[in-house]
Amino acid sequence: MTTTTPLAPKAGQLPRARGRFAAARPAAGFVAAALVLFAVAPLALSDFRLGLLAKYLCTAMVAVGICLAWGRGGLLTLGQGVFFGLGGYAMAMHLKIADAGPGHLPDFMQLYGTATELPWWWRPFANPVFAVAATVLLPMAVAAVLGSFIFRRRVKGAYFAILSQALAAAFAIWLVGQQATTGGTNGLTDIQGFFGYDLNDPVNQRMVYFVIAAVLLLLIALARQLMHSRYGELLVAVRDSEERVRFLGYDPAHVKLVAYVVAAGMAGLAGALFVPAVGIISPALVGIVPSIELVIGAAVGGRASLTGAVLGAIGVAWAKTALSEEFPAAWTYFQGLLFIVALAFLPGGLASLAVIVKRRRAGRGLAGDTV
User: Fold this and answer.
1) What is the pTM of this model?
2) Residue 160: CA atoms inside 13 Å, Cβ hemisphere, count?
3) Euclidean distance between CA atoms 264 and 267, whole angstroms
4) CB distance 297 to 315 below 8 Å
5) HSE, side-chain direction, 13 A CA sphere, residue 29
6) What is the per-residue pLDDT across 95-141, written as a single tens digit (0 to 9) for each?
7) Burial of 358 by CB count in 10 Å (0-12 exposed, 13-18 middle, 19+ buried)?
8) Which of 94, 157, 214, 237 registers the highest number of CB atoms within 10 A of its CB?
9) Distance CA 338, CA 346 (A)
């Protein structure tokens, strides 16, 4: 009786298999996320909880942009609430005009304002096409103008973070001061419809959730494509050694500007979808504190990992809802402590734990071989 020894794999077969597995892993993760969002969550959650999840997914959209700008490009954007608010107010303005009906003013203008007709800068938002386009293009245009001045003057690091934070504060203060046209502190509230659909109907609320989930997956796919493209490699090079990139003939200001503008567009789209999901947009949602909260979610989950940033944003948003009810005074301190601990002791966020454990195991294995 003869026994055959299994043939050893040829040279190159094992690396190729690993390469195919690595290439298929993102697609498998994308499919798994789609199944959770479109099948598991609607079946397992009540309408109320599903509405909360839709709200959390909007914060995850902002985290996708933060992952691109901060995690990949090193741009600590503490003012994403501005772009979130621009998209949210653009959408809310159209929905308030639609709720009021032709020839009528939105309810808050009748209560607080003295005008007998819509302000001139409100009128274009009566057009649904203009309003939808403005939710993305307006934040991107503002980011392009601001970024051009900031990056050309080579402002970076903590100075860039402070400037972006100051922008969020100024925007919130301006909104509060324009009570007759923006609703002031209250913002734009009591939004009833969404392009002809009644938001009080649970079926339509689920439709909004599905739209938000689909947009989130599309943004993740777009961000991943950018991060793994030639541009993504150039963005990392600018983050690590800006002067060398300039020496090679590239303008780092343009490279950083693209990431900043794309992240702004994602935040604006998130704000636009947040409005029908929650029914309100106000200065309290776009100022300094909300902007920092958005960054905290990405930092805790892992700013360099799309999956980590998204899950971190959802987790922090959920924790805010759950814990702030029990500890309303202590939650803010806990949130700040969470941000400090993540940056000081786990810069890569929770997504880096697997890499850290793998490296330690590899180090122990090498130490065992040398003994």
Assistant:
1) 0.88
2) 25
3) 5
4) yes
5) 15
6) 999 998 887 888 888 776 666 788 889 999 999 999 999 999 999 99
7) exposed
8) 94
9) 11
